[in-house]
Amino acid sequence: MSAERAVIRLLAETERPPTYKIDTAAPLISKLEAFLPQLRAANDALEGVAEAERSIEQVEEGMRHIEMNVAICDAENMREDADIEADSSEEEEEEDDSGLGDEEEEERMEVVR
């Protein structure tokens, strides 16, 4: 069997996901229909701007911008670290229980601060 026939057969045998009718009167649809032309106009306006002027990497002093600091980490290790921190904070709370009343404890904390 040729590769082309195998692909056609596979596509024919593959179950297609169900499709649903969308209520065109839904508020979200009307908002989307209003937004998409605005998005297209903004993209068209950006095409006319020089590449250097629309670069998000070039931020001058005083320009408004959003700074995003992203860290890539191992989620499994993050969970283990959180468990260790939770265990150690519980132990510290047990050790800190000095038997003082709430008012005495608050006074002691105010002095420490």
Radius of gyration: 30 Å
Along the chain, the helix and strand elements come as HHHH
pLDDT averaged residue by residue: 76
Main beta sheet strand tally, sense and closure: none
Please give the count of helices.
Answer: 4
Could you list the spans in which at least 5 consecutive residues all have pLDDT below 50?
none
Q: Could you tell me how far the N terminus lies from the C terminus, measured between alpha carbons in angstroms? A: 80 Å
Pairing-aware structural class of the strands and helices?
A: mainly alpha
Q: Give me the count of strands.
A: 0
Query: From the structure provided, what is the oligomeric state, counting identical versus distinct chains?
Result: single chain
Helix content: 55-70%
Strand content: under 5%
Molecular shape: extended
Describe this structure in words.
It is a single chain. The protein is built from four helices and no strands. It is extended and about 80 Å long. The N and C termini lie far apart (80 Å). The protein has 113 residues and is an all-alpha fold. Helix content is 58%, strand content 0%. The relative contact order is 0.03.
Would you kindly provide a brief summary of this structure?
The chain is mainly α and 113 residues long. It has four helices and no strands. The longest helix is centred in the last third of the chain and has 22 residues, at 75-96.
Which features would summarize this protein structure in a list?
4 helices; single chain; mainly alpha; extended; 113 residues
